[in-house]
Amino acid sequence: MGGQQRIYKQRIASTQTLGKVFRAMEMIAASRIGSARRAVTEIGPYEKALTEAVAAVAVHTELDHPLTGKRRDTPRVAVLVVASDRGMAGAYSATVLRETEKLIARLRDEGKTPVLYSCGRRAQQYFHFRGVPIERTWEGESDAPTQDTSRSLAHELLERFLDPSRITGVSAVYLVYTRFRTMMSQVPDVRQMLPLTVVDAPESDSEREDELGEDKETGQSFPEYEFIPSPEAVLDALLPLYVESRIHNVLLQSAASELASRQRAMHTATDNANDLITKYTRLANTARQAEITQEITEIVGGADALVKG
Fold first, then answer.
1. What share of the chain is helix, strand, coil (3-state, %, to 5)?
2. DSSP label of 143
3. Residues 28-263, CATH architecture
4. Neighbour-count burial of 254, counting CB atoms closer than 10 A to its CB (0-12 exposed, 13-18 middle, 19+ buried)
5. Rounded to two decimals, what is the model's pTM?
6. What is the CA radius of gyration of the chain?
7. Of 114, 265, 305, 130, whose CA–CA distance to 184 is shortest?
8. Mean pLDDT of successive 10-residue segments in the chain (309 residues)?
């Protein structure tokens, strides 16, 4: 029985240590989730302003740009998966990787060749273990992405999409990431980044004329723009910034989702550790009571034997 008590005490001590680690990670994630959510919120006006600027240029031109045109000269398609650098975040990385596997299978069924890019050590390890080649990987900033990382990602993907070579170029770019909704809700999302579709750009001639004219209901005149040196040159400068801002938004959404998932997972792990400690304490007390009962029984039995002797 003494051995049982020792085993339970060792388990209690180790579980208490793990519980402290889980609690510390939960508090770290909770302290950082506020800044991550704020970053997601603050980038919204900038991305909206860029979208409105690109839409304004689209009013004065046919939006004929290499980034908006479809390529059919190569079957290669770039897929960027955004996962975490570290574990202990619940099913955050597993869900994104599962969606990536589905996208790769769908692209192959369509006769295309996926070219994989990864952001986050978990994605790199997952596909490396399964023998899937990765074109390039970014690590170390999954829960706190910087503008430099977004710029590097945008530059690489834009270069591959604009590359006229059939062997090294790609015909489309897909992003697989986790969209942050609330602290309790983060959903995986698959977005086609390139060829680019400007959401607020007018699509028909009538819409284009309305944008250039007046609002028929209010009579308000829309502003007319003069582009220097030309609308095409302005578009050449705006679209790469537009792509970079959208990629940065995706990285920020993923970072907020990772921190929220880690906080929730560590809170659950802390509760489970406390439950285990309670269970092992009860078992240790039961073993101790059984040991005391056995010792009393042996003493009484020995005393009876002496009396009878």
1. 60, 15, 25
2. S
3. 3-Layer(aba) Sandwich (3.40)
4. buried
5. 0.80
6. 30
7. 265
8. 77 91 90 86 82 72 73 91 90 93 94 93 92 91 89 92 90 92 87 74 42 44 65 80 89 92 91 91 85 81 76
